Amino acid sequence: MDELDSLETVSIDIDPFTLELSRPLSTATGDIEQRRGYVVCVETNDAVGVGEATPLPGWTESYSTCQDALHSVSVDSTLASASALDKANASAAYHGVELAYVDAMARHHDRSLAGFLSTDTPATSVPVNATIGDCSPEQTRKRAQSAVADGYTTIKLKVGAREIESDCDRVIAARSAVGDDITLRVDANGVWNKATAEQFLETARAVDISYIEQPLPASDLDGHASLRGRGVDIAVDESMSATDPEQIFAAGAADIIVCKPMALGGPRQTLAVAHKADILDIDTVITTTIDAVIARVGALHVAAALPGSDPRACGLATGSMLDDDLTTDPVSITDGHMSVPTGPGLAGGALSSYCNH
């Protein structure tokens, strides 16, 4: 892990956890009901860092693959063994270990994680979106109104789990409920074909949808490219895990890339991809894989370190989807924004104390 070589590792410990969702999140690819993962604690010669590995198959490796990868690292407990992890095939495991190491390094330098990762002055707060899972048009309307009442100015609707006509009715209901000043985006999780996506685009233009996330299967980069330039931006998410980001860039497949640090193999890889995208005038949105608090706060720091001065709302407001959490969340959401902890590291002692449990 290159610049982290100055840290002398004393121990790497892993602690499994299971968290239930407060209610299943219905997506086009099925319901998500619980999250299982590992807290990773790294003790170095002068700091303790904490990370999280919470795999989500379809975006990352399986739970068992993640478990095996982390077990091998914890047994050896060296930076060399951590660096040898297969980032491509065990991205969640790599994320957990790298997040712990960069947290320790940021603490070593007495800086926030965002400050340690950023090439410029990081943001002090990040706009975030509310998420509405698959539901009826009437439920969509009520949940959209509730999100606005809670201060959100950007709302993402999960689509693709029902007939296209019903999803069109849902976005019309949402726009009617929240007015013209709220940003709406949708996420189809790659289940549509091109004809269905084109049909939805007509309604999306009419109700001013900001972007459609992953309308087509992850491998169909040319199809995504063909949907661009029609009045609604196209974003890719699953494609970022199923293909190489360079392929996405070369195909001209996206106006926006949706980056999950857990799926890309850690904070630094995520920011490297975002900087390449920025050069190509492609925006980056940071989201979680419905992670526990450690990875959520890590993703918030990554979002704060993104290039550019006018970030789109990120998908980080997912803590309320969990029925319980690993520890108290040190970050609150006010008027649709999350304040970035000042550190040192992830959040001072608020999260590293977990390693003392």
Structural commentary:
Keywords: Lyase, Magnesium, Menaquinone biosynthesis, Metal-binding. With 357 residues, the protein is an alpha/beta fold. It has two domains: 2-115, Enolase-like, N-terminal domain (Enolase-like, domain 1, 2-Layer Sandwich); 119-347, Enolase-like C-terminal domain (TIM Barrel). Helix content is 38%, strand content 22%. It has 14 helices and 13 strands. The chain has helices at 63-76, 79-83, 91-108, 113-117, 137-149, 164-178, 194-206, 221-227, 238-242, 245-251, 261-264, 267-279, 293-304, 349-352; strands spanning 9-27, 30-44, 48-53, 125-127, 130-132, 154-158, 183-187, 209-213, 233-236, 256-259, 283-286, 333-334, 337-339. Strands 5-6-7-8-9-10-11 form a seven-stranded parallel β-sheet. It has a three-stranded antiparallel β-sheet with strand order 1-2-3. Helix 7 (194-206) links the parallel strand 7 and strand 8. Helix 1 (63-76) crosses helix 3 (91-108) and helix 5 (137-149) packs parallel to helix 6. The chain is globular. The two termini are 27 Å apart. The relative contact order is 0.16. The mean pLDDT is 93.
